[in-house]
Amino acid sequence: MAKLILLWLKCVIFWATIEAVFEDQVGKFDWRQQYVGKVRFSHFDTHVQSSKKVLVATERNVFAALNTRTGELFWRHVDKSGSEGNIDALLQHGQDAVLMVGNGRLLRSWEISVGGLNWEVVLDSGSFQSACLVGQQDMVKHVAVLKKTAISVHYLSNGHQKWIENLPETETVDYQAVYSDGNGEVYVLGVVPHSHIAIVVYSLEDGEIIKQMSVEAPWLSNIQASCVVVGQGMLTCVDSAAMSFYMLDLRLQLQMTQVPLQAYSVNLFSAETGRRLLDTTLIDFYSVFQLYVQAFLKKDDSVGYRAMVQTEDHTLTFIQQPGRVMWTREEALSDVVTMEMVDLPLTGTQAELEGEFGKKADGLMSMVMKRLSSQLILLQAWIAHLWKLFYDARKPRSQVKNDITIENLSRDEFNLQKMMVMVTASGKLFGIDSKTGGILWRHYLDNVPPNAAFKLMVQRTTAHFPHPPQCTLLIKDKDTGLATLHVFNPIFGKKSHVTPPALPQPVLQSLMLPLMDQDYAKVLLLIDDHYKVSAFPSTKNVLQQLQEMAASIFFYLVDSSQGRLSGYRLRTDLSTEQIWEVVIPPEVQRIVSVKGKRPNEHVHSQGRVMGDRSVLYKYLNPNLLAVVTESTDLHQERSFIGILLIDGVTGRIIHEAVQRKARGPVHVVHSENWVVYEYWSTKSRRNEFSVIELYEGMELYNSTVFSSLDRPHAPQVLQQSYIFPSSISTMEATLTEKGITSRHLLIGLPSGGILSLPKMFLDPRRPEIVSEQSREENLIPYAPELLIRTEWFINYNQTVSRVRGIYTAPSGLESTCLVVAYGLDIYQTRVYPSKQFDVLKDDYDYMLISSVLFALFFATMISKRLAEVKLLNRAWR
Amino acid sequence: MLQRDRIPLQLIFLQVALVVTWCFTDMETGPGASVSTQPNGDRFKIEGRAIVPGIKTQDWVSTARVLVEGEEYVGFLRTDGSFAVNDVPSGSYVVEVVTPTYRFEAVRVDITTKGKMRARLVNYIKTSEVIRQPYPLQIRASGPHSYFMKRETWGWTDFLMNPMVMMMVLPLLIIVLLPKVVNTNDPEMRKEMEQSMNMLNPNPELPDVSELMTKLFSGSKGSSKAGSSSKGTRPAAKRR
Lengths: 877, 240
Fold this sequence. Notes:
Chain B: Keywords: Membrane, Signal, Transmembrane, Transmembrane helix. Chain A is mainly beta.
């Protein structure tokens, strides 16, 4: 029997390694949201009357076509991030959209109905200024590109250059705009700040200068900021200082006509009505950043308009004529910085039952009565639930709506549905329901500095009813180091009544302690640049607890510019004392990342059972830090990366490994007793994975409690490396509630896939030669190359562009881990690293099991009857 | 590092021969360094075409991208399936066409400092092995990606051929048939049987089915009961 069970277990483990998504599970518990980023340029596709496209080019180097009816994407092209993929200009003509990319380096033309590329040409380097389409007798065949010192004209059909000319007097004149009126002439506008506008007119045919003009404009300093060409070559500029408006006909005049602004009240008025209209229709309306309006003639000859509004909080809103909001896109979510998952609160009845335990006991009899009454309420709720199920089942499926709103949010049976609190770079916070992806609340913090660093912490979970859950967001200005705290309720998004302490000093480090105050809020310690510690909340109770615990509170600081890692201890008067310091010379190598373990991680088994039935105990040091360094010398022969394992309390270096001829970016995952890291091997030009595992040995020094201060034996270190056939974007390990389930690594690939790689494959004990014992241990024989199998992609074809982070959270089920991958897109799913061993699978065959049961039942009935007959016969004999 | 030590002499010879014949004297040196040391050096263009047999290009090009060495350089596909990645300095790169629906093989492209190009198969283990591929690249999709597992469908044959069922049915047959063929009460016979069972089981420390069975042999009455109970535990254990 034992062998049977063993075999069955083996089967389970074997199947676990080929875990994948089934086709019928698509969309059942996963969802993806695609974003484009903050819009920089936009064009309504107007060349076909019925077109539903609007083209957008964004600050995240994305070029996409949106559906004007629904706001969904038709197609999207994600270019390189950074300045090399930066989109400088967007022009549209008919089926073609012309894009200037990478500060005038590339000129691309896209076919907008399919979303394919027409052509791409490389231009000479030079700072890009402006671009425009050049027409000739109503036929647009060319595009003109203006650079700092030259102008070039390209054919629209294939991108080939027609001519390129150097601009005159580039030392004094700052050329900023190019314009063509469709008569075979190209106007280049330059400005000498606070002096005059220089206009150079080129012939489209051969690039010869037809004429050069100069117009006095002592008030003008920048054309792009204050001028626009309207109508037939009418340059209009605004002088905000003099409150006036200038007009210049580029073809005729040599003098600017000044118009006081009041005369143009019509224009202003129409803009104003539009504005007022918007104000009345939108609830969350922050200041408008950009407004794209398309006016068109309706069938009854009245003027209609559509508008796309980009607001300060990166919301894109599409408005149809009578002020109706067609759709909104929360483009802030294209840049999620950090996130947390918070358990949903219990339902009212459950909370009542829980509340019973919170109260003080007042007599046996009343307690029994209370219990009985609450059980009765539960029964009532259950019957109501059943009735609702029955009622819904009779209705056709389409009518049953399960709209999740903030009011009916409640925790499900297995705690699979959670609230995702997402913090975006723009300073907008979102609360998203993990089951459907619906945005339940949003909150815009308008005082966030542009280069802020965020740290989100859950101070109180929903477990402490009636105290509301509480999250704290630490917003730190990277330049000054000054920080502010935003305290809010993660379920409703409302700012908490608790006033956070003002932080006048730059904050160096923040840490969450397992201590709780009398209201069950965890204590947050903040260390400022004078190494003074302040606590939040800082009630008397907390300070007292801190004083008691001070001797066992340690923390570390990292100064990567000086290459210094230092450890501190808390004194009872809340001052600190340095106890260790490790200096890594910054001339040779610099600290890239420091990774500790996740505080909510559980390790179920203390050791591993070997083939000979002995136990190899894991070195489970909760204070262990993995420090990754990269060499400053980037030459391929001399570059290296280093990894240091340091005990955060004592500063003791547990292990040090150096990977020669390797360079970053290094991705690290640190968990349990292992560290996995990935780097680029310059020697073999490939990505490699390396795994370090730490073991105490065959005996455990002190099995009850781990103390960094009392651990005389250095752990055994095992290491192994593998080839990985792709570069990676990010990496994280799965996390389950009790840590029984085997671990997988979730690897975000540049192709958009998220690979779930079993940790089994990254095991330094994988043998080169298979022996009886290794087979007994289920070790896979060593193979140098790790494979990428598309069956292991947890997001099948729902690719996630530019994965920036993967967040894992345990659910109420031990087998299930919740995963959120974020980057340009957001993808949420569940993974089962060891398959669903604690719930019935969704394809569980109820028919089979019930028919077998019935068959057995009847078989026993019949055999009983037969036996009776037989006995009777025997008795007669 | 991993398998290089074991590269047979033959291969080294082959390698040398190839280096000589193709005159790629700077194949092993340079490329990585050139990326970092000469940012303003000559830039080249990687060209090619991706083909999905039997599918119109309009249907898939809008979701496709060309990735050179991860996301270091990015190219897009034209409406006819051809592509060009511009602005690539000399070096050695892995070029792959990425779409969510179709699978394309990656190709390694070497560019010398003079701009000579060649394409070869990607081999991460023997990184210097050269198996030439056509250049400009011709990348043909090898079919759609298979993301999904097949659900196990239930059939009588599957049920009967299942190792678990086999393991239960066979002993049952033995239990029922054996007592009728041999006399289990004969002590010599029993000893022999025990020995043969021990031969099958290499690890004597494990508690074993055979022991259980020999115990069962003594009384044939309890056998049917044990059989049904083991049958019962299976679904229960699965549910756990």
